């Protein structure tokens, strides 16, 4: 005799509902209460708060933000194609994104313990390496795309 198939749940799967507060087990998450435009508003609020915290507490982010404030107008003024402009701007923004992620990893590790541990060091070093690679990509992008234009402008006189 074949066993009976499992009875269907009393509610549709979470993926089929428009309520984001129901998790994959079908139970409501106590951590998700907002849906729709209200959720988008709070997400924007928390994102802006995160940027302000990074500016206030992360010196590396402030340095890279200063670099971005200097480079982004240059990217808009350089005589390059639209794709090259996106690459210039994107490489700068990528540095900021990776720095935010690195800072969040460091904050989470420091929250767990300020005690020195080899795994904490590894995580922090990996985050730092990610920032280094993003900076190298930015430098390479700007060197290849803006470098020749700047050299030409300097040779011919601004």
TrEMBL record:
Keyword check for Nuclease: no
GO molecular function: ATP binding; ATP-dependent diacylglycerol kinase activity; metal ion binding
Pfam families: DAGK_prokar
Cofactor note text: Mn(2+), Zn(2+), Cd(2+) and Co(2+) support activity to lesser extents.
GO CC, alphabetical: plasma membrane
InterPro entries xref list: DAGK, DAGK_prok, DAGK_sf
UniProt keyword Ribonucleoprotein present: no
Compartments, as annotated in UniProt: Cell inner membrane
Function: Catalyzes the ATP-dependent phosphorylation of sn-l,2-diacylglycerol (DAG) to phosphatidic acid. Involved in the recycling of diacylglycerol produced as a by-product during membrane-derived oligosaccharide (MDO) biosynthesis.
Protein name: Diacylglycerol kinase
Naturally occurring in which organism (per UniProt): Parvibium lacunae
Lineage of producing organism: Bacteria, Pseudomonadati, Pseudomonadota, Betaproteobacteria, Burkholderiales
């Amino acid at each position: 005799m074949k066993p009976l198939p499992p009875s269907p749940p009393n509610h549709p799967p979470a993926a089929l509902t428009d309520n984001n507060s129901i998790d994959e087990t079908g139970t409501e998450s106590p951590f998700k209460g907002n849906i729709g435009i209200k959720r988008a508003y709070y997400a924007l609020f928390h994102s802006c708060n995160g940027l302000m915290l990074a500016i206030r507490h992360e010196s590396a982010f402030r340095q890279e933000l200063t670099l971005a404030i200097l480079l982004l107008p240059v990217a808009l003024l350089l005589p390059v194609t639209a794709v090259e402009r996106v690459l210039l701007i994107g490489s700068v923004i990528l540095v900021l994104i990776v720095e935010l992620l690195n800072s969040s990893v460091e904050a989470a590790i420091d929250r767990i313990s300020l005690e020195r541990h080899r795994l904490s060091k590894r995580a922090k070093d990996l985050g730092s390496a990610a920032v280094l690679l993003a900076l190298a990509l930015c430098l390479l992008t700007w060197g290849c795309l803006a470098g020749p234009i700047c050299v030409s402008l300097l040779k011919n006189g601004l």
